[in-house]
Design a protein that fits this description.
The structure is a single chain. The chain has 190 residues and is an alpha+beta fold. The chain is built from 2 helices and 9 strands; from the N terminus they run αββββββββαβ. The protein has an 8-stranded antiparallel barrel. The longest helix has 19 residues. The radius of gyration is 19 Å and the shape is globular.
Length: 190
C-alpha cells in the first residue's frame, strides 16, 4: 500500500510540475567533461532561434551550411563553416579554446562571448547538438544580452522536419520565437 501511495504521489507531483513549468529544458553538455571525440566531424546547420530577430538575421541569407569540427593541439577546436549564399560558397573558420575552469568554449578574439553546448534531446534528436551564443549587454547599465541565440546542428543533412519543429516549439516555450530555417535547395559547399 505504501508503494502505491508513493507512486501516486510522484505521478501527481510530476503532473503539477508540468502545469507550473510546461517547458522542456535543454541538457547542458559541459565542455570540460564531455567526450569531445563524439562531437568532431561534420554538422549541418538546421535552424536558429532567439528572443530577437536581430540575433538571427544573418542566417536569413543562407541556403545551407555545413560545418566541420576538428580538434587541434592544446585543448583547441577549429570549426570550419562552408556556407551557401545564393550561388556563392563562403568559407569561414572559428577557433575555440577549452579551459578547465569553464563549462563553455572560448571563442578566439571574443572572450566575452559564452559558447555553450546543449544536448540534441531538446529537439528529440540523438544525432543533433544545440549551440548557444551569449554576449553581455553592450554597456554596464544594460540588462539585456547583446546577443543570445541557439542553433541546431545535425549529423545528417536530411533530418526529419518534426525534429526541427520540436526544437522550434521548445525554444518558443522559452520565449524564443524569432527563428530561421535554411531552405537547403542548393548543393552544399565543400
Amino acid at each position: 500500500m505504501w508503494k502505491e501511495a508513493l507512486s501516486c504521489f510522484l505521478y501527481l507531483g510530476g503532473l503539477l510540475q508540468q502545469l507550473i513549468d510546461p517547458c522542456i529544458h535543454p541538457e547542458l553538455l559541459p565542455v570540460k567533461t564531455v567526450d569531445r571525440q563524439q562531437y568532431l566531424g561534420k554538422w549541418y546547420f538546421k535552424a536558429a532561434v532567439s528572443h530577437t530577430e536581430a540575433d538571427i538575421q544573418q542566417f536569413r541569407v543562407l541556403d545551407n551550411s555545413l560545418f566541420t569540427m576538428e580538434e587541434m593541439a592544446n585543448d583547441t577546436l577549429k570549426l570550419t563553416g562552408h556556407m551557401r549564399i545564393g550561388d556563392a560558397c563562403i568559407k569561414q573558420t572559428w577557433t575555440y579554446h577549452l579551459q578547465s575552469e569553464r563549462d563553455d568554449l572560448v571563442l578566439q578574439g571574443r572572450p566575452q562571448r559564452r559558447n555553450l553546448l546543449w544536448s540534441g534531446k531538446w529537439a528529440n534528436c540523438q544525432d543533433c547538438i544545440v549551440f548557444q551564443e551569449i554576449e553581455p549587454p553592450l554597456n554596464e547599465t544594460g540588462s539585456v544580452d547583446s546577443l543570445h541565440r541557439h542553433m541546431l546542428y545535425a549529423r545528417h543533412s536530411d533530418v526529419k522536419d518534426e525534429l526541427v519543429t520540436a526544437f522550434l516549439k521548445n525554444a518558443a516555450c522559452h520565449n524564443m520565437r524569432a527563428n530561421v530555417r535554411p531552405p537547403q535547395e542548393k548543393e552544399f559547399c565543400a
